[in-house]
Specification:
mainly alpha; 2 domains; 4 helices; 0% strand; flat
Length: 124
């Protein structure tokens, strides 16, 4: 068995970078689709007793998290790239606010739904 110390991306074989790219894109697509498949398996996308606002907050939470995971938003690196200036500070907090809004809304909706849920039909 031969041991290769070379970087596979610097291989002489032109298919190696293509195979790595296809494998990486396949993993990204599967990870992006999995939450939606899981939600479908649990709910069949039937609204049940949820309101339009509840569904909108929950799906925006999911979509925003998937988007920022794909983009790879790293606030520490973004701050170092933008630099420490008033503009950089404002942009950092604006990006944080945009990123956090669906998550906060989703948590509030989940909390509200849990408070409304009475297990086994037990009422107060």
């Amino acid at each position: 068995m031969e041991v290769y110390d070379d970087n596979p991306l610097e291989s002489d074989d032109p298919l190696v970078p293509t195979v790595i790219l296809v494998a990486a894109l396949t993993v990204v697509v599967l990870l992006g689709v999995f939450p939606h498949v899981f939600i479908f398996l649990l709910t069949r996308f039937r609204k049940g007793h949820s309101t339009r606002a509840e569904r909108a907050w929950m799906m925006s939470w999911l979509v925003f998290n998937q988007f920022f995971a794909q983009v790879g938003l790293d606030f520490g690196e973004a701050r170092s790239v933008i630099g420490i200036s008033w503009y950089g500070v404002i942009m950092f907090y604006l990006a944080t606010l945009i990123y956090a809004t669906p998550a906060i809304g989703g948590f509030v909706i989940v909390g509200k739904m849990l408070l409304e849920f009475t297990p086994c039909g037990i009422s107060e």
